[in-house]
Design a protein that fits this description.
3 domains, elongated, Isoleucyl-tRNA Synthetase, Domain 1, single chain, Isoleucyl-tRNA Synthetase, domain 2, 4-stranded mixed sheet, Rossmann fold, alpha/beta, RNA-binding, 4-stranded antiparallel sheet
Length: 708
Amino acid sequence: MDSKFLKPYDPASTEGRIYEAWEKSGYFNPDNLPADLLAQTEGKTFTIVMPPPNANGNLHAGHALFVTLQDIITRFKRMRGYRALWIPGADHAGFETQVVYEKQLEKEGRSRFGMDPKALYEEILAFTLANKANMVGQIRALGASCDWSREKFTLDPDLVKKTQETFVKMFGDGLVYRGARTVNWCPKHQTSLSDVETESVEESTPFYTFKYGPFEIGTVRPETKFGDKYVVMHPDDKRYSKWKHGDTLEVEWINGPITATVIKDNAADMEFGTGVMTITPWHSQIDFEIAKRHSLPMEQIIDWRGKLLPIAQEFAGVSIKDARAKIVEKLAAKGLLVKTDETYKNVVKKCYKCSAMIEPQVKDQWFVKMAPLASMAVTAVNKGDVRFIPEYEEKIFRHWMEDTHDWNISRQIVWGIPIPAWHKDGEWKASVERPGEGWTQDGDTFDTWFSSGQWPLLVTGYPNGKDAGYYPTDLMETGRDILFFWVARMIIFGLYLADSVPFPTVYLHGLVNDANGKKMSKSKGNVINPLTLTDMYGTDALRMALVVGNTPGTDLALREDKVKGYKHFANKLWNIARFVLENVGDADVNGTLTEADAKLEKELADVVASATANIEGYRVYLAAESIYHYVWDRFAAEILEESKPILGTHDAPSSFPADVVASRKSLLMRNLTTCLKLLHPFMPFVTEEIWASLSSSKNPLIIEKWPT
RNA sequence: GCGCGGUUAGCUCAGUUGGUAGAGCAUCUCAUUGACGUUGAGAGGGUCACAGGUUCGAAUCCUGUAUCGCGCACCA
């Protein structure tokens, strides 16, 4: 027996060495897998594309979960004889990284505004690359058996070019258009955002009713009302039937008398308030639509920084935060305030990163026409081309897809892929290269999800790259929270560009929360760094703790004592191996079994069968638990105990017949071997380390055949 | 407002097609120089949120209620 078994299992002195050996072996790359292993499936591929982590910080517990789940599946499939490919990568994460970096600039007393864009870009690039290197080291530490030789980054020049080509193609197909429309403007970060990058929050906001000529109008935003020259009511509203569409009237308003025009439009809700409203098309989506229907002029009231423009006269330059009270005060003084309802609740949009109030603004932007694309995606789901785990996520997906708005893909930040659009004399062209003399490129960059949405296609080099055969992939495993941001976009781009969904199965895991089930956040101070846990208890222990009992779609409470428990398990396995090697090191693994022992072997075969079926069905949590219980409660607690008298000790030699002893020795060695294989995907380090000490082991465990 | 989940032992959660409730941790008792104290044996602890229904049989399927959570949302 190897003397290392005399001490408890020590992850710290094992894991780095084992990982290095795996990497050196080249087996993370399916091209290097031995023929007899692949013969099991005749060389079928199994591909997972790793959700590229944002290269702007450390790995968190959520990363540890996805690395674990995907590594389990990849190792399992590899042992089953698939050309198992798990492609790693990193995302430049446009807006999010820019936000992180701007925070850092703020701390240093600097600001991106006023910086040379190129210099800023270079700084963020350096920051991102440093983080990326750090992150890659952390993914390795978690045991990820992904193929680093195929690692990709969203800003690799070839990927940038492909991303831009997609835009050009969509432009040609009429699926992207440039238009002045209402966008979500973040006044802090000075960029527009897509709908999914905003959060709707319900707030208590006073609801004011003002006199507006003969009418009473309701609003929660008096500070936008300077330019309101149109008063809107429903055409069927009998209360206002004496007013005709287009009637004009003089009304006394904030800064004196103005001429108002009556507009009849179905958008006015007769049940709400007085049924009459004035509109501010530049700063409200619904007002914008009404104005467009009637070809009404639109005027900007609030500037890009959130301050009132000169149209506000005496209030010009006042931030909208301060303006409301002042304007209400003035209107009240003029006797135009009818009442204030303090109990009113309305929904406001906030920037999902900085919680600044989103200001709707009308801006020339690039939009993706979603209706035809979304309908392709829904059709694919209806046909069963994409299956969701858990199943109910399909309903959520469909609900969103069936009512999605056009997607604003322009961002006014430097950190991103430049939009390959050029203009000259008011004309626009889409082209990766400058189309000719005198053309100026659009200064905006893509929404980061525009590139990551193409990720499965980009990393496999579809359609002509050397790995194009790995597309479509086999499984998308990612967080439930980015179903719309990412999964939906990948499905759309896959259908649009390759005429096929990028993966038949979407496995969505929940959040990893703290021990009390509360969401981890820096401000609450309850963030658990996965690497701290692996240092304390070993990577295998953390992996088990993340996986056992963690059903798809459900949030997980990560408890330190659970991780500790699986450290105990790793050591239990270690000692099982010690016992077996000490007593049975000389066993003939191919020996004949007694009837009783054959039964025990069959019992493990049943465990293997159910675990196999569970992993195949992505019920990883059940497989992990059943193997755990077999190893500890059955194999160690009962079979090993029962074997002691059969094998005999120095003090009490065995009184059993030689064939019974030989049979038992074979059985213990065989079952240990099988248990190590079964556990390998879950606990790759300790199993590989034990495996190296078995006399029967010729290959590393990572490329052993999965037991049957 | 629309949509989706959860509600099971003190805590965190399983329970894959309906067949008399499970795990880990915690608690209590006992054992032990044994492969492993990072151990072993055992115990206590749940009318499976509530009310109806379907069924020979429901934690599981259906309907409704309560409650917690999440997602989406252009009623000023």
